[in-house]
């Protein structure tokens, strides 16, 4: 399988990767890093995780003038796509894609020979993560006849290019968290391969769940309101330590409180309050991976003035106290370190 990405006006490739299409569970995951900068403050940063049947691309682009990126995959592939930026004009051969990308959305698609062009707007930071799987790799992490993706699988087996769902769907908190874990993975060797593959399986579950959950007809959201709800979600994510009240958030996005509460639940499967708690608890879990951070420091960094309130929220969310969670995390990290030395 060959994967190539080039800028239309340049012969220098951004991405040039060749891998085998077979699934080898014992193959090591290698990493490549691309960092291209010029005098116009233009920048291409791309991290590639590579093994047979799998390429994971985490790419950031910034251009001072609009540029078109050409992207090709010369064999059958299933692509799990995660878009963090809006307004990228998209054309994909054999696939009817949405004309412009939407921020914080995801989809899965299959093609037997991918050719796409992406017009990157000037002065805008673009970020996407794509997990490219060979057909053999994909069917080793999910059975081809499972009802969860039956229609999509039939298209793959018939070699018909297709999306899992007709439109890109908004990130759920679970998808956002797992993609963040993948981006921040620092494991090496065998552990890295095991970890990344487990996270890909986890992401696939969450992507299939979003398709399997059918909103009620009464919960249909207009494109304008959907954009405002995405804006609300981003405001919460940008500063979940000091989040606005519901009336303040409503004013910030110019959407009344009723539509905000009902629409947020319909689009993201959770209430505004529950989402804030989830963001804080996930950040707390991340902080506890450091052996030096205390429970009091974690509470403060997660937006709690009272440690007892933080401890109660943590126990309600995870089922045990932050003190016990921290002790268990330290033990797990010790055994993982010991295992890595043994390998």
Overview of this structure, please?
By secondary structure, this protein is an alpha+beta fold. The chain folds into three domains: 2-212, Jelly Rolls (Sandwich); 215-269; 281-343, Arc Repressor Mutant, subunit A (Orthogonal Bundle), CATH 1.10.10. It is 41% helix and 24% strand. It contains eleven helices and 13 strands. The strands form two sheets. Strands 3, 4, 5, 7, 9, 11, 12 and 13 form an eight-stranded antiparallel sheet that branches. The protein has a five-stranded antiparallel sheet with strand order 2-1-6-10-8, with no helix packed on it. Strand 4 and strand 5 (54-62) form a beta hairpin. The two termini are 30 Å apart.
Number of strands: 13
Low-pLDDT sequence parts:
214-218, 331-343
H-E order: EEEEEEEEEEEHHEEHHHHHHHHH
Main β-sheet: number of strands, strand sense, barrel status? 8 strands, antiparallel
Q: Which structural category fits the helices and strands?
A: alpha+beta
- In angstroms, what is the radius of gyration? 21 Å
This entry's quaternary arrangement is single chain
CATH topology tier name of the largest domain: Jelly Rolls
| Count of discrete structural domains | 3
Helix content: 40-55%
Q: Separation of termini?
A: 30 Å
Number of helices: 11
Beta-strand share of residues? 15-25%
CATH class of the largest domain: Mainly Beta
**CATH architecture name of the largest domain:** Sandwich
The global form is globular
The CATH superfamily label of the largest domain reads Jelly Rolls
| Average pLDDT for all residues | 86
């Amino acid at each position: 399988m060959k994967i190539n990405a080039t800028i239309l006006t340049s012969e220098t490739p951004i991405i040039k990767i060749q891998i085998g299409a077979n699934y080898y569970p014992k193959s090591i995951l290698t990493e490549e890093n691309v960092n291209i900068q010029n005098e116009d403050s233009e920048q291409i940063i791309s991290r590639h995780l590579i093994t047979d049947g799998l390429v994971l691309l985490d790419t950031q682009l910034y251009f001072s003038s609009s540029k078109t990126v050409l992207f090709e995959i010369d064999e059958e592939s299933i692509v799990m796509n995660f878009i963090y930026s809006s307004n990228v004009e998209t054309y994909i051969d054999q696939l009817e894609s949405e004309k412009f990308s939407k921020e914080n959305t995801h989809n899965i698609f299959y093609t037997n020979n991918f050719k796409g062009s992406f017009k990157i707007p000037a002065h805008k930071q673009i970020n996407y993560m794509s997990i490219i799987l060979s057909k053999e790799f994909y069917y080793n992490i999910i059975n081809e006849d499972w009802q969860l993706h039956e229609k999509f699988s039939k298209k793959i087996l018939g070699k018909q290019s297709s999306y899992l769902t007709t439109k890109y769907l908004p990130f759920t908190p679970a998808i956002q968290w797992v993609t963040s874990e993948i981006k921040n993975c620092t494991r090496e060797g065998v552990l890295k391969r095991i970890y990344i593959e487990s996270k890909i399986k986890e992401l696939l579950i969450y992507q299939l769940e979003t398709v399997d959950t059918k909103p009620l007809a009464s919960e249909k959201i207009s494109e304008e309101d959907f954009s405002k709800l995405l804006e609300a979600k981003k405001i919460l994510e940008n500063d979940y330590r000091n989040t606005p009240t519901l009336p303040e958030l409503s004013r910030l996005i110019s959407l009344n409180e009723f539509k905000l509460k009902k629409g947020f639940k319909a689009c993201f499967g959770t209430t505004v309050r529950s989402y804030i708690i989830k963001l804080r608890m996930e950040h707390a879990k991340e902080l506890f991976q450091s052996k030096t951070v205390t429970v009091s420091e974690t509470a403060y960094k997660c937006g709690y003035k009272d440690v007892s309130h933080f401890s109660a929220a943590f126990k309600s969310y995870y089922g045990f106290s932050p003190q016990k969670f921290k002790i268990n995390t330290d033990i797990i990290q010790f055994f993982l370190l010991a295992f890595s030395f043994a390998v």
